[in-house]
């Protein structure tokens, strides 16, 4: 692969399936409903800046009716010790009959919108928003989950999924052999800082969460950029995160300039040093305060345009970057 900086954006498309265990529809529903407006706007924004992104989608959202969804369960279901983590333990009772009735859980049309932009990639965020570090999960259930995600993507859209984003960034080394076996060539790993080390929900602490929030505005963990040598060192290819694009907060609006500076600084470092910078977020983060969030994103992408002109900083999907790395390696 040519010696230049690489810019990766991954977007975790979950609708309500990714927040069901911590927030109900009444509390977070407006954010999720906003995805249906935010996603088309995001796709046009990316095209305007020639950005190639990876949209990692939860498999449960690709259906159009509840009947279709209920007929598409994996062969082995996760047996989490905390049953509330599984959508298979009564959560389907909250799901409406179809897309028109329930905008919180059905998103087949969102995948179709993404596919109208061939420069973008659809990857997997697992079928059920599978938690790879929670007590009770097994390698057999994980494999069944990924197989089902691949099956519904192929059956409904003719898609061959090759990139993976682990839900909640619960990265599990033991599952990489399963990914390799099933044709997954890359995944989003975690930042190389103890602040972001993968942990389950029980082990997570308020202290680490506070540090992650502070790291949004001041440099606590470094630029989190990665050289080609590291990317070549694993298969499937690990393309670690650099920065989570936190949504606009009216309470923290006085810190917006610091938030922008933190991201731009990392991007500049990657461009000048021929490294990879990986930015990520969820569409529901843009579900409310959309004008403020898109205004911020435009500033980030304008900086990308400048770096592209000055240093040949280039945008890739996750799979395109992995294929380039693997082609050079072999």
Automatic annotation (TrEMBL):
GO terms for molecular function: hydrolase activity, acting on carbon-nitrogen (but not peptide) bonds. Gene3D superfamilies: Glycoside hydrolase/deacetylase (3.20.20.370). Residues 35-184 form the NodB homology domain. It comes from the Bacteria. GO terms for biological process: carbohydrate metabolic process. This is Polysaccharide deacetylase family protein.
């Amino acid at each position: 692969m040519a010696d230049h900086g690489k810019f990766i954006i991954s977007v975790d498309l979950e609708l309500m399936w990714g927040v069901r265990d911590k927030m109900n529809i009444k509390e977070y529903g407006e954010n999720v409903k906003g995805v249906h407006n935010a996603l088309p706007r995001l796709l046009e924004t990316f095209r305007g800046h020639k950005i190639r992104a990876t949209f990692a989608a939860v498999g449960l959202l690709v259906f159009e009716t509840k009947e279709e969804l209920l007929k598409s369960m994996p062969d082995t279901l996760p047996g989490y010790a905390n049953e509330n983590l599984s959508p298979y333990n009564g959560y389907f009772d909250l799901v409406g009959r179809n897309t028109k009735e329930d905008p919180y859980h059905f998103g087949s049309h969102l995948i179709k919108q993404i596919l109208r932009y061939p420069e973008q990639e659809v990857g997997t965020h697992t079928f059920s928003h599978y938690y790879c570090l929670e007590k009770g999960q097994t390698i057999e259930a994980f494999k069944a989950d990924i197989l089902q995600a691949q099956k519904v993507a192929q059956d409904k859209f003719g898609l061959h999924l090759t990139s993976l984003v682990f839900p909640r960034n619960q990265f599990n080394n033991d599952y990489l052999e399963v990914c390799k076996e099933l044709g997954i060539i890359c995944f989003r790993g975690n930042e190389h800082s103890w602040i972001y080390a993968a942990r389950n929900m029980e082990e997570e602490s308020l202290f680490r969460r506070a540090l992650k929030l502070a790291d949004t505005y001041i440099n606590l963990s470094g630029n989190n950029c990665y050289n080609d040598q590291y990317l070549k060192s694993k298969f499937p290819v690990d393309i670690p995160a650099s920065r989570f694009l936190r949504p606009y907060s009216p309470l923290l609006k006085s810190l917006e300039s610091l938030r922008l500076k933190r991201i731009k600084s990392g991007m500049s470092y990657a461009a000048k040093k021929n490294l990879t910078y990986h930015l990520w977020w969820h569409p529901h983060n843009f579900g409310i305060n959309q004008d403020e969030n898109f205004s911020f994103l435009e500033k980030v992408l304008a900086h990308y345009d400048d770096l592209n002109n000055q240093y040949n900083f280039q945008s890739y999907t996750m799979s395109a970057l992995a294929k380039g790395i693997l082609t050079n390696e072999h």
